[in-house]
C-alpha cells in the first residue's frame, strides 16, 4: 500500500535522472565518490550543485483535496475535545470520513464516567461551553 495512493504508477516508480542523486534531490556528501557535490543548495525543491541545475527525481502534484479519495479521520474519545473535533473537522475538511471511537456507552469522557448524585458541576460551568453558534 502506498502512502500516495492517487499518484500514477510512472510517478511512483520514478528514478533519479542522475544515478548519483539520492531521493529528494539529496546527495551523500560524506561519500568519497560524491565529494564534488559538497556545495549543494536547493531552490524551490530543485537541487542545484556547483551552480548547475539537476533535475529533481520527484514531481510535486498540485491537486485539490476534494478531487482525491476521502481522508479517513479517527478521533479517539468522545470527551470534551473529542466532541469538539467531531463538530469542527467536518466543517473545516471537505471530503473526509470521520469516525469517533469511545469506550463508554455515552459521550462526555470524564464527566460521563464520574457522575455523582446531586453534584451538578465541580468547576465553573461557563468554562465548558462551545461557541458553535455565537449570537
TrEMBL record:
Gene3D superfamilies: FAD/NAD(P)-binding domain
Transmembrane regions: none
Superkingdom of this protein's organism: Eukaryota
Biased composition range(s): Basic and acidic residues: 26-35
Region span, Disordered: 1-35
InterPro entries: FAD-bind_Monooxygenase_sf, FAD/NAD-bd_sf
Protein family per UniProt: Belongs to the FAD-binding monooxygenase family.
Name of this chain's protein: FAD/NAD(P)-binding domain-containing protein
Species, as recorded: Friedmanniomyces simplex
